[in-house]
TrEMBL record:
It comes from the Bacteria. Keywords: Membrane, Transmembrane, Transmembrane helix. The chain crosses the membrane at residues 36-54, 74-95, 125-147, 159-185. The lineage of its organism: Bacteria, Pseudomonadati, Bacteroidota, Flavobacteriia, Flavobacteriales. It comes from Flavobacterium stagni. The keyword Transmembrane helix applies. This is Beta-carotene 15,15'-monooxygenase.
């Protein structure tokens, strides 16, 4: 934001053309906001690509068939399809937000677009974290139901309790790492967007 700060300082030095200076600041905020939303789109696509590649490394169907639990295959297929559809919708919304912000030429409209983009990202992050927790819980339940080694523990209450505690701890760690990732990546971009929004509010006064 150094360029923007320099413009603002120059603006305060009794500039005889305040309207021109205001437009310069708007153009800079517009460019920065458009760039941020573009990065949100790129990162979300890379994220989906990564998870898709990881999913190909694990054959859930083969594992279920091996443990005579074919009845769970439709559940995981439906979960996968729903997840891809919802994620595709979010990516489309990010693309739409990017195109809208890039074409915006009014301060109030840009502010509204920033608010909408921030809301979409919050829903996206919330959905992904929720889906991760659901997938992890489903994986644990599946392991308890079909894994012979874990089923053997059911005859030993103490061992079973320890196994469940370990699973819960693992789930919390997994969720914490995922939340930290989203906070560092999307949270940083959202802070920059919000900073741009506040600067636009000053111009619009």
């Amino acid at each position: 934001m150094e360029e923007l700060d320099l413009l603002k300082k120059d603006w305060n030095k009794n500039n005889p053309f305040p309207q021109l200076q205001e437009m310069d600041i708007y153009k800079m905020l517009h460019k920065k906001s458009s760039s941020i939303v573009k990065w949100i789109l790129i990162i979300s696509i890379l994220e989906v690509t990564l998870w898709t590649a990881i999913s190909f490394c694990f054959n859930t169907d083969e594992y279920l068939i091996k443990n005579h639990s074919e009845f769970m295959i439709p559940y995981f297929k439906v979960l996968t399809v729903v997840n891809f559809i919802v994620t595709a919708v979010f990516i489309y919304l990010f693309y739409k937000n990017y195109r809208t912000i890039s074409a915006t030429n009014a301060t109030k409209k840009l502010m509204a677009d920033i608010v909408r983009t921030r809301r979409t990202v919050k829903y996206y992050v919330g959905y992904n974290l929720g889906m991760m927790v659901l997938s992890a819980i489903s994986g644990f339940v599946m392991a308890i139901m079909v894994n012979p080694k874990i089923q053997e523990l059911s005859h030993n209450t103490k061992a079973m309790v320890i196994a469940i505690v370990i699973m819960i701890v693992f789930l919390l760690i997994f969720f914490g790492v995922a939340a930290l990732f989203y906070y560092l990546i999307y949270g940083t971009l959202m802070k920059r967007l919000y900073r741009n929004y506040n600067e636009l509010k000053k111009i619009d006064l």
